[in-house]
Amino acid sequence: MEKIIPYVFITLAVLFPGDKLTASLKDIDLNNPPHGLFLEEWMEIYLSGSKIGYAHYSLVRKGDDIHSMMQTRMQFSRGPITLKLETDQGTVESIDGQPKKFTMRTTMAGIPVVTEGEITDGKITISTRQLEMTRKEEYDWPTGALMTWGVNRESLERGYAPGTIYTVDVYSPDMHLNKAVSSHVEVGEREIVNYRGHEQTASKLITTVNLDLGDITTHSWVDEKGVTVKSSLQFGGMQVLMYATDENTALTDFVPADLFTHTLLTLDQSIPEDARAVIYRLSLKNKQLNPLLLPDTYCQKVLEKNEREILLRVGGHDRSEKNERMVEPFFDNQSAYLNSNSYISTDDEELIDIAYSIAGINTEKSDLASQLREFTTHYITDKTLSVGFASASEVARNPSGDCTEHAVFLAALGRIRGIPSRVVSGLAYIPDYLGKKNVLGYHMWTQFYLEDRWIDYDAALKTSDCSPSRIAIYTSSLEDNNMADFAFALMDVIGQLEVSIDSVEN
User: Fold this and answer.
1) Residues 44 and 180 grouped into a single domain
2) Which residues of 362-392 are buried (b: 16+ CB within 10 A; e: fewer)?
3) Distance between CA 186 and CA 220 in Å, rounded?
4) Within this chain, do residues 227 and 358 fall inside the same structural domain, yes or no?
5) d(Cα 194, Cα 272) in Å, to the nearest integer?
6) pTM here?
7) How far apart are the first and last CA of the chain?
8) Are 389 and 322 found together in one domain?
9) What is the pLDDT of residues 388-427, one digit of tens each?
10) Rounded-to-integer distance, Cα 134 and Cα 136, Å
11) Do 36 and 181 share a structural domain?
12) End residue of a domain, out of 243, 261, 279
């Protein structure tokens, strides 16, 4: 599950190009920038002291348009395995900062996903391609939203005088496809910053992005020439740092950071294999973080809660019982859990053929769900940590991966056969991992909506129904415009969550 977390870093690197200004950009006429390349910048990216990658950013004027490009490359380790994550995002904007087009190419596994958008007459048309499949969608363009060059202009026009405060609506396809996010900027006093071995005075900028599930804040330091020398983001118990540098330095000396070991949580006791249910107590170390909001479903019930602590019961029930708590009302947006998207492509002929080869069309939905789960468990023959975040279509053609690949593939099979599905990010109990006993590791699995309730199906761990050894933190249809929420929902939790067992029901 921790493989989706690097998505956060890709998103942040692309979202805030407006902070990356040079003297040449500061001194130009914003209404008549020079033709050709007029800005190029390289930045190193560090996670908890390890250099995990770089970002390369440029602005080019072609005729009456400004073309931006942000290239991001990062590496993460899972024991001996290294994951490589890549993104290339470009925009075409008018000189006065109005967005016209964008292109985004993201590779989190073997086959890239390419998303393109064009803004005309108050609408944005989105085209998403993977393999030989293309999907198109149209949304209302969020009035007043800016992209890369527009944000640059806004930052330059506002300046860096202490006390300057402003808000910008930013459209970034990494965040949402159908709406902008609000970015609130405050300019603080000038501070002494340690940058690449020497001290430098710079203005501090605090940028807060407002998301549906909470706020994300970054700190940046800009020197007197307008160059952002350093940016910082606290990511749970880890710190993300970006430094301006030269090309040669940016491209060398990567040390992939190990996310999985860092994110393990240790329990104070074991969970017996025959346990029927477990009562967990979850709390946040940092009381300033966003409140815990866990899904209350058939498989887990919030017993008590306040802003910083939750008492949670997780485990199975007698499914022959019918009571009000066990019947979950259907979701607001039913289509999101049945329709196709970039990761769960229900119109992929390869996936359709697989889904209908598993059981007859008259099979009862509960029996079908179990057969789909068992099939997925055995279909993915290469149980490997080396896959980034593959779509169901990729898994159909290359059956390898771990929990994320099992989750999206099973969700796709269910949707194709008419079962509403979603994926779940959360914690799974591991009795013994690399010498550590009784730990919880971040994990992903599938939920099917059956018999008026969401029920767990975990193809990676070979289980169906409700297990007391899994805690659901966030659920998602993986529809394209909420992928950012799925990633950012974990940010306050990683490294900050404490879990203990109150009791075990046998």
Assistant:
1) yes
2) eeeebebbbbbbebbbebbeeeebbbbbbbb
3) 10
4) no
5) 50
6) 0.80
7) 28
8) yes
9) 678 899 999 989 888 889 999 999 999 999 999 999 988 9
10) 7
11) yes
12) 261
Other Cβ atoms less than 10 A from the Cβ of 172: the count is 27
Q: What is the pLDDT of residue 146?
A: 96
Is 144 buried (19+), middle (13-18) or exposed (0-12) by CB count in 10 A?
A: exposed
What residues pair up with 374 in beta bridges, in sequence order?
none
Can you tell me the distance from the alpha carbon of 118 to that of 127, in angstroms, rounded to the nearest whole number? 9
At 361 the pLDDT is: 86
For residue 108, what pLDDT is reported? 73
Q: Phi, psi (5° rounding) for residue 494?
A: -60, 125
* Residue 198: predicted pLDDT: 77
User: Given this model, what pLDDT does residue 254 score?
Assistant: 84
For β-strands 123-130 and 50-62, DSSP reports them as: unpaired
Handedness of CA 50, 80, 174, 112 (dihedral sign): positive
Structure tokens at 211: 């998301």
φ, ψ for residue 407, nearest 5 deg: -65, -50
Q: Judge contact between 9 and 45, C-beta under 8 A.
A: yes
Q: CA 359 → CA 32, 67, 411, 477, distances in Å?
A: 64, 51, 16, 24
Structure tokens at 119: 């803004």
CATH number, domain with residue 269? 3.10.620.30
Token digits of residue 486: 């799925």
Mode of pairing for the β-strands spanning 99-107 and 81-94: antiparallel
Residues forming a β-bridge with 455: 448
Closest listed residue to residue 106, CA positions, set 73, 59, 145: 73
97 in Cβ contact with 146 (< 8 Å) = yes
What residues does 221 pair with on adjacent strands? 204, 230
- pLDDT tens across 52-93, in order? 899 999 999 999 999 999 999 988 776 667 778 888 999 999
Q: Are 243 and 277 members of one domain? A: no
Q: Among all chains, which residue has been given the structure tokens 């995002």?
A: 89
200 token code pair: 């430098």
Beta pairing partners, 66: 61, 93
Identify whether residues 50 and 93 lie together within a single domain.
yes
Please give the C-alpha separations between residue 333 and each of 196, 255, 339, 450, in angstroms, as whole numbers.
Answer: 49, 42, 11, 16
Contact 214, 485 (CB under 8 A): no
381: its two tokens: 């023959």
Last residue of a domain, one of 204, 233, 261: 261
- Does residue 254 share a domain with residue 273? no
Cβ distance 344 to 412 under 8 Å? Answer: yes
Residues of the chain with pLDDT under 50: 1-10, 13-23, 319-327
Residues 412 and 291 in one domain: yes
